[in-house]
Design goal:
The chain is α+β, with helices and mostly antiparallel strands. It contains 13 helices and 17 strands. Helix content is about 50%, strand content about 20%. About 35% of the residues are buried.
């Protein structure tokens, strides 16, 4: 029994009305896609712009806050530097008057009115003391008995006893023994005529006065101003807490920054109360004192957050408006697309029918390859093109061996199946762009091969013969017992001096085909004048 291939193919629909309708629908969908993309891009641009502007304004807000904190710190440092300089001058005046005398108790006691006078002219001073070398108070502005107060255990007294320096010393805050008031001690060494330690003159600065100076600067409800020694000891801080006096911030991020630079700004969590603040700081010019001015970040950015909320709400409203408008536009575009699709629907069937008729007019209804008329037209165009550019062209004519006997033995249906299978096999051998294959009549097929010489055509013919044999279709009346084909090849190099025509090539290929059949079939022959060769 023969091997059957697929049933008769339906002529495929060629590009036409359906494709145009699809193209229009695709364009409409493409327009919708562009609109959606534009809307998304616009919204994303708005959101991105809002984010960029917010980030930029955030940076500016930080820069302004840092500059403001540094400026306030500079102003505060100048005031406290001036304050400590005033105290220095008062101590220097007292120590000078003491050292110019004989250092006796009587001569020192004569300076009591001077101490009272200095205190009366200095709102920032709490008291003045003069201690002898044993730490006993000789005179003071508190009118306490001299023998009651002995300050040898105070750090400032120990420092002057150990150091010959005549520089004033600012000490850690302490609570006065005579009054219980918190003060900042500023002291100076007294020497005798031989430069030996003879006592200490000490002035105490009122903490409440220092705090009142700090109150003159606006740093917000949760802001802070701190006055500390260069070793990190806190002298005073607003907001005030007695527990903070004398506390050390050494080892903190704040202290590390102050050790590295004389002035600057940084954002940090306070080592005192943990509040996140932006701090500006500056060392005083003439004293080992550092001023730090800090504002709470949430207060700094309060107005910024409000502006950002208004700006973001505006952007969101714009985005919603754009989205609604875009949605309406998309609906309109889709409605128009649907209307156009309905308009073309009735016309589409006629277009499809015409295209199918055109396809049927050019293709063989049984095998699906080109018919003879279409082949003649395309082969003529190939020959003309090769003549123009002086290229080679080849024609290969195929014939199914002993097909009539096959058809008589198995019937017409099997014969049709055989021809379809042979057409597919031949087509598999000619797959280059420009190659043309057609059914030329009955069991004959033909190929037109542009830019192909005899060798190339022979290779394609051999591949075609092998492809058909490879089908292994049973043929009891064939010498090979399977369906085979024979082929005749004609090739020519076209030129103006050697014109070519499809008709001549077909005649030459037919003569070569005859020779192939004469030589036993299932082979090919190439046309030559006057003989044939395999």
């Amino acid at each position: 029994m023969p091997t059957h291939s697929e049933p008769d193919p339906e002529p495929p629909a060629l590009p036409g009305g359906n494709e145009r309708a699809c193209a229009q629908a695709s364009r409409a969908d493409g327009t919708v896609g562009l609109v959606v993309a534009f809307i998304m891009l616009t919204v994303l641009t708005l959101v991105a712009s809002n984010a960029w502007l917010a980030w930029r304004s955030y940076g500016k807000e930080i820069a302004l806050a840092e500059e403001s904190s540094r400026n306030i710190a500079h102003a505060v440092s100048q005031q406290f530097d001036s304050l400590f300089s005033d105290v220095d001058r008062a101590l220097e005046t007292v120590s000078f008057q003491i050292e110019r005398g004989d250092l006796s108790r009587a001569s020192i006691e004569e300076l009591q009115p001077m101490l009272v006078n200095i205190l009366s002219r200095s709102d920032h001073l709490h008291s003045l003391f003069v201690f002898d070398k044993d730490g006993y108070s000789i005179i003071n502005t508190q009118a306490a008995r001299p023998t009651v107060l002995r300050n040898t255990d105070r750090p400032y007294f120990q420092s002057h006893l150990a150091s010959p320096s005549m520089q004033s010393l600012i000490g850690a805050p302490l609570q006065g023994r005579s009054t219980g008031t918190h003060v900042i001690p500023v002291s100076r060494r007294i020497n005798d005529f031989e430069g030996r330690f003879a006592g200490v003159v000490m002035a105490s600065i009122r903490i409440d006065y220092v705090l009142s100076m700090m109150d003159g600067f606006e740093v917000g409800d949760e802001g802070a101003i701190a006055l500390s020694l260069s070793d990190g000891t806190i002298l005073a801080r607003r907001p005030f807490s007695a527990a903070d006096l004398g506390r050390s911030i050494a080892g903190s991020e704040m202290f590390a920054a102050q050790q590295k630079w004389r002035a600057g700004a940084l954002r940090m969590n306070s080592p005192i109360d943990g509040v996140r603040r932006l701090m500006g700081y500056e060392h005083t010019k003439n004293h080992p004192v550092v001023v730090a001015v800090a504002r709470a970040e949430h207060e700094i950015f309060e107005n910024w957050w409000h502006a950002l909320a208004v700006q973001t709400a505006t952007v969101l409203l714009m985005a919603v408006f754009i989205g609604i408008s875009g949605r309406y536009l998309v609906v309109v575009i889709r409605q128009r697309r649907d209307a156009q699709a309905e308009l073309h629907a009735a016309h589409q069937e006629l277009i499809d029918a015409n295209e199918r008729l055109l396809h049927l007019a050019e293709h063989d209804g049984l095998t699906g390859v080109l018919n003879r008329r279409a082949f003649d037209a395309r082969a003529s165009a190939i020959v003309a093109n090769c003549t123009r550019y002086q290229r080679t062209v080849a024609v290969v004519l195929f014939d199914v061996d002993n097909f009539k006997a096959y058809n008589d033995h198995f019937g017409h249906q099997a014969g049709d199946d055989c021809l379809r299978a042979v057409a597919n096999a031949l087509g598999s051998a000619a797959r280059r762009p420009g190659d043309v294959i057609a059914r030329y009549g009955g069991e004959e097929f033909v190929m037109a091969l542009p830019e192909t010489d005899e060798t190339g055509a022979a290779t394609i013919a051999a591949n075609a013969l092998q492809a058909v044999s490879g089908l292994r279709i049973t043929h009891p009346h064939s010498l090979h017992e399977i369906v085979t084909v024979s082929a005749g090849i004609a090739s020519v190099r076209c030129s103006g001096d050697r014109p070519a025509s499809v008709e001549n090539l077909l005649q030459q290929a037919d003569r070569a085909l005859y020779a192939a059949k004469h030589d036993g079939r299932n082979t090919y022959r190439v046309f030559e004048e006057p003989t044939f060769r395999g």
